[in-house]
C-alpha cells in the first residue's frame, strides 16, 4: 500500500480489521486453498480517489480456472455438499449471512476503498443487499420440489417431476456492485445445491476474497465456492468454454455478454445474461415536480451513475420542462463530490481512469452533437477519477449520448408533448433493462406499464430492489432473471419421471 492510500485510510479512521485485510498478500480461493496464480502473475489494485496503489491481486490462469472447476465438480458429483439435506444447506447459507452481517462495516470499507464508492451507500445497499439476498435464498433451499401428474395415458403409471440442481455454475461479475452482484448469483446457486466458481471483475476483486474467508468460516465445504481472480480475456474466457461448467451466469456489458453467450452455446451451457441499459424516465406534468426531480437525480447519480438500470434518459412533459430542469440542477448541486470514505460523499470517483476518460469523452461528444449542457460538464481537478454530475438538455434520440450506455453520472433530457410520443421515445432503444414513470394519475400509469419494453418498471422512484423481486432485462439488456423465485428456474433442470406400475 503506498503512502497516499495509507494517509487516506488514516484520515477517515478505517478499522484495524480492514487495514489488516488490505495489508496482507491476496490469494485466490480454490478448493479451500489460498493460492497464487499458477504462473505467479499479479496486478496492481488502484484506489480511485488517491490514484495510489492499494495492493496486488493474483492474475489467475486457465489452469487455475480448471483447478477451481474440478474442485466444484468434485463437491457437486458426490462430494459432501451433494449429500447435504436442504435444511442443512439452508443453515449454512444463514450462517454465512450472519458472518457478513457481523463483518458488515469492514466489508463496506473494503468495497468503498477498492471500487471507490460511498462507504455509507456500500453499507446500506451493497452489504445489506448481500445479507438480504443470502437470507432470502437460504429459505428457498427447503422449498424446491417437483409435482406429481395424473396421466391420461391408458395403463397405470406414476408420473412426477424432479427439480435438480443444474451443476457447476460459473459466475462472471462486473465492478459496479461487486459483492452484491456475486451474492445474487451465489445465493440462488447454493440454495438449489449447485457449486460455484466466481470470476470477479479485475478492478474490484477484494470483497470477493474477504467473502471467501467468511465462506470458509461458515463451514461451507471446501470447493463449493471458488474465487478465481484475473482477466476477463483469460479467466472469464476459460470459464466460458470449460466443459466442466454447466451454467454460466454473466453480468456485464452487452458486447461482452454477446460474445460470452455465443461461446457458451457451443456447449449448450445454461445461460443467464444481465447486461447493459439506457433506462428511460417519463415525467408527466401532474407529478410532484420537486420530489420527481430528486428521485430522477438519485436514480441516475447513485454510485456515480455506474448502475446498470440507472435512469439515464429523461423525457419530460413540455409544460414543466424548464421548472423540472431547474429543480434537477438545484438538487444535483447539493450532492457532495468526495472520496468514498467521506461519510457525506454522494458522487464518488469513477472506478478507474479508463472509466473516467470514457465518461469525459461522452460528455465531449454530447457537446459536439449539439446537446446543451444544463449542469456540470466541466473537468474536475485530481487526484481521483472524478466526473462532475452532468445534465444535458434538448437532446434527441438520434444522438449517441442518448442511444449508448455511458455508465457514469450523465443524464440526457428532452421535452415531449403527448403520452404517445413519450412512450415511443422511451421504447426507442436497443436496451430494455428498466423504465420509470413519474405521475400521480394512476389510470395513466397503469395503462403505460404494459407498453414499456423493460424488465422492470419503477413508478415515482428508481432502483427499488428486493431479493424477492426478479431483475433482468428485455431486448439487448439480457436473458434470464436474477433474484426472486424466477431465478431458481435458471439453476434447476426439470426431470420427468415415468414409473410403469404393475
Ligand atoms: P464488462 O467489461 O462486460 O465486464 C464484465 C465481466 O466480464 C468482468 O468480470 C470482465 O472481466 C469479464 N470479461 C471481460 N471480457 C471477457 C471475456 N472475453 N470473456 C469472459 N469474461 C469477460 O462490463 P464492466 O465494464 O465490468 O461492467 C459494466 C457493464 O455491466 C455495464 O454495461 C453495465 O450495464 C453492466 N451491468 C449490468 C447489470 C445487470 O444486472 N443487467 C448489473 C451491473 C452491470 P475483467 O474485469 O477482468 O475485464
Ligand atoms: Mg479498485
UniProtKB/TrEMBL annotation:
Domain Aldehyde dehydrogenase: 34-497
Gene symbol of the encoding locus: peaE
The protein, known as: Phenylacetaldehyde dehydrogenase PeaE
UniProt cross-references to PROSITE patterns, sorted A to Z: ALDEHYDE_DEHYDR_GLU
Database matches in InterPro entries: Ald_DH/histidinol_DH, Ald_DH_C, Ald_DH_CS_GLU, Ald_DH_N, Aldehyde_DH_dom
UniProt feature coiled coil, ranges: none
Alphabetized PANTHER family for the sequence: ALDEHYDE DEHYDROGENASE-RELATED
Gene3D superfamilies registered for this protein in UniProt: Aldehyde Dehydrogenase, Chain A, domain 1, Aldehyde Dehydrogenase, Chain A, domain 2
Entry's family note: Belongs to the aldehyde dehydrogenase family.
Entry keywords, A to Z: Oxidoreductase
Record-linked SUPFAM superfamilies: ALDH-like (SSF53720)
Residue positions of the active site: 274
Transmembrane segments: none
Top-level taxon in the UniProt lineage: Bacteria
